[in-house]
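Box 4.2: Ligand-aware structure prediction
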Amino acid sequence: MTPWPSVVDEIARFRDEIRELPVSSPTDPERLRRSLEEGYDFRRPRPLKALASEVVALLREHAVQVTHPRYFGLFNPSVREAGIVADTLAALYNPQLAAWSHAPAACELERLTLRAFARALGLDPDATAAHFTGGGAEANLTAVLAALSDRWPEARRDGLSALPGRPSVYLSEESHHSFVKIARMAGLGTEALRFVSVDDTGALDPRAVRNRVREDRSAGRPPLLIVGTAGTTSSGAVDPLGCLADVAEAEGVWFHVDAAWGGAAALSVRLRPCLAGVERADSVTWDAHKWLSVPMGAGMFFCRRPAAVRRAFGVATPYMPETGNTGVDDPFATTVQWSRRAIGLKVFLSLAELGLDGYGELIERQAAMGDRLRAKLADAGWTVVNRTPLPLVCFSHSRLEADPGAVRAVAGSVQRRGRAWISDVVLRGRPALRACITSYRTREEDLDVLIEELDRGLAA
Ligand SMILES: *Cc1c(COP(=O)(O)O)cnc(C)c1O
C-alpha cells in the first residue's frame, strides 16, 4: 500500500483544479483542533496511504491557497513544477549541504545558480559571496552579522558591550519588520533601529538618512548599516538605491539592499532600471520564494565582502569533515545555518527550465497584469494610492473614506466569499486595500473577478 500514486495524482489534479476551488474558507480553530485530537491518537499507528489522503484533505480545506491565480496577497507565489520536483528529490536524497564534501553536486548547482543571479544584479560573481537562506529574514540577519564583524572584528569575542557606542541601523519606516527581530537577535536592541521617514511614494529620502547618521555619530552612536528596500511589503516602493549608495560610501557605512520581493525585477529588461544602484550594495537579500515561483523557503544572500562573511560565521570543529584544499567554502562556516537542506535545487531547476529570458518574461507578464489591474480599478471608480512599477496596487474608494473600519470590511468580505483574496494595509496613516500579483498564472479574467468581488464588498 504505497502512498505514491495518490500523492502524484494529487500533484497533477490540484494544479488543474485550483482555479475552480475557493481561495480560502473560514476555519473555526476550536473545531479543527478537536477533530485533529479525535482523529490522531498517536498510541495507534496508521497506514501512510490513508494518512496522506487525510493530510491532502486538510491542506485543501484549511488554508489560504496561495498558489491560486486569484490570491492577490503577500508575495507568496504559485509554484512551478520544477520546484515541486526539486523539493521532492531533495527530500528523497536528503543531501547534507553543511559540508561541501558531503554534497558536491548540490553545492555546485547552488553556486552556479547564485552566480547567474549575482550577474543579473550587476555583481561580479567572482568577487561575491552568495548562499541560499531559509528566507529574507535570515538573509537580512546575515547582512547585519556580516556588517558587525566587518566593522568590529573584536566584537566576535567581546560582544557588543566592548563597542564604543550602540551600533545603529538606518532604514525606512516602510522597511520589513524582520529587522525588529534581527535587532533583538543580534543583541543590538530595537533602539538601534533608526527609522527614517519616507516621501509620498513611500521611498526613503537619502538626505534625511545622511543627516540622521551625522547627528547620531556626533552623539556617540556609530553607524552600522544603511538599508535600502527594493519593493516594500506595504506598497512596493523602491528606495533610491544609487543615492543611498552615495550616502553609505561618503559616510563609510555598510549598504544593504533588501530586495526580498523586488529583486526579481533584475530579470526584466523593462523593470531593471528601478533597481539601479543595487550593484553598489555591500550585501543584497533576494528571496527566490517570493517572485521566482518556487516553494518556500528559499532566500538568497549576496555579499561583496566575502572576507566579512567568513569572519562572521567561520568556526573550527573537531568533528566536521575536512574539505581539503579544494578552494571551496563549507556552508556551515559561512552561513547562519548548520545542517542545510538543498534549498537551491528548486531554484536551479526552475532557472534551467525557463532560462533567464523565460524568467524575465514571467516577471514582465505579472508586471503587465499589475498595470491592467490599476487601469481596471480606475475604470471601476477606485483610486490607486501608491506608485510603483512593480505589480502591487494599493487603492481605496471615496465611499470608504468616512468610516475607518470600512476598508478592512471590504477585504474581509472579499476573503469570506472565497473567489479572490486581498488584504488591507495602512499607508502613512490611511487605510487602503492591497492587491499584489503573485501568480504567474493570473489572467485578465481573474482581475475581472477581483473587481466584481470588490464591487460586491463595497455594496455590502
Ligand atoms: C518577505 C520579506 C522579508 C522577509 O523574508 P522571509 O522570506 O519571509 O523571511 C524581508 N524583507 C522584505 C522586503 C520582504 O518582502
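In the box above, the bound molecule is pyridoxal-5'-phosphate. Residues 75, 135-137, 140, 176, 178, 229, 233, 258, 260-261, 287, 299 surround pyridoxal-5'-phosphate (CB under 6 Å).
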